[in-house]
Design brief:
Blueprint (H helix, E strand, L loop, with lengths): L11 H12 L3 E5 L2 E4 H17 L7 E5 L4 H12 L3 E4 L6 H11 L3 E4 L2 E2 L2 E2 L4 E4 L15 E7 L7 E6 H13 L8 E3 L7 H12 L3 E3 L10 H9 L4 E4 L1 H5 L11 E4 L6 H8 L3 E4 L11 E4 L12 E2 L3 E6 L12 E7 L5 E2 L3 H7 E4 L2 E12 L5 E6 L3 E4 L2 E4 H8 L5 E9 L2 E8 L5 H9 L10 E4 L34 H14 L20 H15 L5 H6 L3 H13 L1
Parallel strand pairs: 1-12, 3-4, 3-5, 4-9, 11-12, 13-14, 14-15, 27-28
Antiparallel strand pairs: 1-2, 5-8, 6-7, 9-10, 10-20, 15-16, 16-17, 18-19, 19-22, 21-22, 22-23, 24-25, 26-27
Helix pairs in contact: 1-2, 2-3, 5-6, 13-14, 13-16
Length: 569
């Protein structure tokens, strides 16, 4: 199969520039503020690049792009490349303290942003200067640096991964050869702006001459608005985690041709629902090896055990023991990734780079910390994590980072954090009767929402093993921990209906007035459960709540008020 990547294409930017010239009037990007052809998009990129050039952008300089999801976000990324720089995508909704930490750690000088008026992003960027740029010592050739993306760090400090242009070219080849993307596709840009999946959505669509469709922040959240967006935009390619797919109905999306699934284990029931009538690809990858390293097209008639597949062209995965020796087929070990996708390392973290990027048989490889096995037929299977990094809603989360931040709270003397049934649980040693709601708000100002624990359980001390380490097996969920907070009165019809849905999803034996004003997150609500809750409300009550409603009003009493007002209006 001939590749879309030409001999003269040194970077993905080169390839997209060639597409812009070739596609002309064909649709390129559409968002709430309208549609741009490839020619119009190219003109916008040129305008922003000129502004960056006038700011004396240095070759390979890192530029922060902090624009609400829109066509302008995509254009700003391409403009940074055209001007000779590398980009750092920052989610505009990130807590201010987290945002400041990333900008400070990355040492960026220029921040590209835009104003939002009446929910629409202005078509002009604003460029602010934040001191002097620091060129990372790890980047031998600045022309190689394409982007920096931050992942969770076990010490409490996020890690900036240094991505290469050549690695992104490999990703485009994977999208074309293994995922089956085409020029006539309509690709949804659903991923959060601070994860590598969004980079994939952008570059794969534009490099292959497809049409990128950009939802608003509200539309991309699981729920009725997302369903309507995907239907109206006739999306044919979707990138999603299994958790997100579980909350969607494939029967409502007749235009959907390809679903690329990753970020967490793919359960058999989800695979069965989504593999019929379309191509369902299961893929495994990490930020340090540029997004996607394996692929397999799922057979809907064989979903008993879902593999992560075979390596993509240009990638290599070996399964090694603790002595870095290759283990026989069928023997579990740690997954090491090599090949074109391996990144330059971590920004400003030479010791960590040396620890995680190692020489194996004369080849530079990334040790993932993931356990896996290669069977005799060559298929790879994911078996879990070696350390305390877990998957929450498709995000890789270092539990140590949450612990480090939580320990900074004035009411916390010590703490432990673990994953339980897809939710984060914090065990807190500190002041008696801590204000859990205030603690959650405090953490939400410092961490992304998916890293804020759902449950906070006060304990007198943390149990230890004979080795002096925290005994996580002894950290169980107390049966008396309910977070109940009500007045013992009767429930209205709406309150009773919402309470029944909440009790069913949260596994409560009953829901009565004692739970009416209980924080649903204290009862076990998680981000993925919110999407199911919203859907149940739409089906059972015939009215719509948004996930934002649940985050802002996390009690049945408050949500019942929202439902009643919606019905009155």
């Amino acid at each position: 199969m001939n590749s879309c990547v030409g001999v003269a294409d040194r970077t993905v930017g080169d390839l997209i520039e060639r597409r812009i010239r070739a596609e002309g009037g064909r649709p390129c990007v559409s968002a709430v503020d309208g549609e741009l052809s490839y020619a119009q998009f190219g003109a916008l990129v040129e305008t922003i690049a000129a502004q960056l050039t006038r700011r004396n952008l240095v070759r390979g300089e890192l530029v922060a792009v902090e624009i609400p999801r829109s066509a302008l976000t995509v254009a700003a990324v391409l403009a940074v490349w055209r001007a000779g720089g590398a980009f750092l995508l920052i989610e505009p909704t990130l807590p201010e303290l987290r945002r400041a930490e990333l900008i400070r750690d990355a040492g960026v000088r220029l921040v590209v942003s835009a104003r939002v008026r009446s929910g629409v992003v202005d078509d002009a960027v604003e460029i602010a200067e934040r001191g002097e740029w620091r060129c990372p010592a790890e980047v031998v050739d600045p022309a190689e640096l394409a982007y920096v993306i931050y992942t969770s760090g076990s010490t409490g400090k996020p890690k900036g991964v240094l991505g290469r242009h050549s690695s992104l070219l490999s990703v485009v080849r994977t999208a074309e050869r293994h995922f089956g993307l085409r020029a006539d596709d309509r690709v949804a840009m659903l991923a959060p702006q601070h994860v590598e999946a969004m980079i994939f959505e952008m570059i794969a669509s534009l490099a292959l001459g497809a049409h990128l469709v950009v939802p608003t922040e509200q539309q991309r959240l699981p729920g009725p608005e997302l369903d309507r967006f995907l239907q109206h935009e006739r999306v044919s390619v979707l990138v999603a985690t299994p958790s997100r797919l579980r909350e969607m109905n494939p029967d409502h999306l007749p235009a959907l041709r390809v679903v690329i699934c990753g970020g967490e284990d793919l359960p058999s029931d989800v695979a069965q629902r989504w593999a019929f009538g379309r191509t369902l690809v299961n893929s495994y990858g990490v930020s340090e090896a540029t997004i996607a390293s394996t692929y397999i097209e799922i057979d809907p008639d064989d979903t008993r055990r879902i593999p992560i597949g075979r390596t993509c062209d240009g990638s290599e995965i070996v399964v090694l023991d603790d002595a870095l020796r290759v283990v026989p087929d069928g023997t579990p070990g740690e997954l090491f990734i090599g090949g074109d996708g391996v990144t330059l390392g971590y920004l400003g973290r030479p010791e960590l780079t040396a620890e995680r990027f190692v020489e194996v048989g004369g080849r530079r490889m990334y040790r993932t910390g993931d356990r896996g096995v290669r069977e005799a037929d060559g298929l790879l299977y994911f078996l879990g994590r070696n350390d305390d990094q877990v998957q929450i809603g498709g995000f890789r989360v270092e539990l140590g980072e949450i612990r480090a931040v939580l320990r900074e709270h004035s009411a916390v003397h010590d703490c432990a954090v673990r994953e339980d049934a897809g939710r984060l649980v914090a065990y807190v040693v500190g002041k008696a009767n801590p204000d859990v709601a205030a603690m959650r708000r405090w953490l939400a100002e410092r961490l992304p929402s998916y890293m804020v624990p759902s449950l906070f359980i006060p304990v007198d001390k943390l149990p230890l093993t004979s080795w002096g380490k925290v005994d996580f097996a002894a950290l169980t969920l107390p049966t008396e921990f309910t977070g109940r907070n009500g007045d013992g009165g009767s429930l209205s019809e709406t309150q009773a209906a919402l309470g029944e849905i909440a009790a069913d999803l949260l596994g409560l034996e009953r829901f009565d007035s004692a739970d009416l004003r209980a924080d649903l997150f204290l009862l076990g609500m998680t981000s993925s459960l919110i999407t199911r809750f919203v859907r149940r409300v739409a089906v059972d009550l015939g009215t719509e709540l948004s996930p934002v409603d649940v985050f802002e009003r996390p009690t049945v009493a408050e949500l019942a008020g929202v439902v009643d007002r919606n019905e009155e209006g």
